[in-house]
Amino acid sequence: MLAYLRYLAGRLALWAMTIFVSITLVFFLPRLVPGDPMSAMFVKLSSVGGRLGSSELIDQYKHYFGLDRSLWVQYVSFLRELLRGNLGYSIASFPSEVGDLLRSAIPWTIGLLSVTTLLSWILGSVVGAVVGWRGAKSPFFQALVPVALVLYTTPYYILALILVFLFAFLLPIFPLSGAYTVGQQPAFTPKFALDVLRHSVLPALSIILVSLGWWFLSMRSLITGVRGEDYIVLAQAKGLSDQRIMWQYAFRNALLPQVTGLALSLGQVVGGALITEVIFAYPGVGWLIFNSIRGLDFPVIQGSVLVLILAVATVNLAIDLLYPLLDPRIRQTGKA
Asked: Which site from 45, 113, 168, 238 is most exposed, i.e. has the minimal number of CB atoms within 10 Å?
């Protein structure tokens, strides 16, 4: 019990350090990019109110957002407001609050990312286990390996562009972009749900296919590695069925490294999903960050990236805490 508590304390300390370092980097890095975040605002103001008085309004905006103060003062103020749960106002979409923009974008990203990640991980792990255990006896299973290898080595954005060309331009089966048809009002109706599902097919497919290739190859390799272990040989000597040995012995022991791989790859999966959102103009956090970077909207960049980092770090922490439930050896030693 004491060993597990030390293990838990170490994971919590690592989680807190990751969040703090991320907060610091997210604050300073956008401000090191050349350019003035008020330049885009100057164009908007001058187009609305003319050149007269625009410079005074820009100065007021800089003062309001604290951009006329030193970086250190801005950083301390940012930390203070962050502890209060205040992410500030958007510069480009003023007077919209960053929290409101995130609340409208996060559900789309969660819906897309959670479904695609879980689906690709489960399918890849199950099919990879079957191929790793019985693949040598089946030419069909062996043919899946090069296909998975091609999918795994294909970047998210390349596959997304290929899918757009094939199924949005060449064969206009699915919509080109967006989360639902322009002009429709979001509502809990079957018609709107089908429209959302139709728009999400191509973004989801690009994420699932790339991730599926890696989970397939990973589980196949793990199953192949445990086939010669002593406990497998002993189970075979006892006369247990081949199916029982595969699922209760080989698959269960190969599952922990697969869960570890899921934790380690979450950042890459999230990054790929954000790029996919940009390609398909999907109104999630990735699309929000892309537009914020174009306008150097510091508060929205900070808030969006921090939410993503917090989500990935927390999911990694949850997976770490699940390890002892999956492997009794961790419960005994308290080590991952």
From this structure: 238
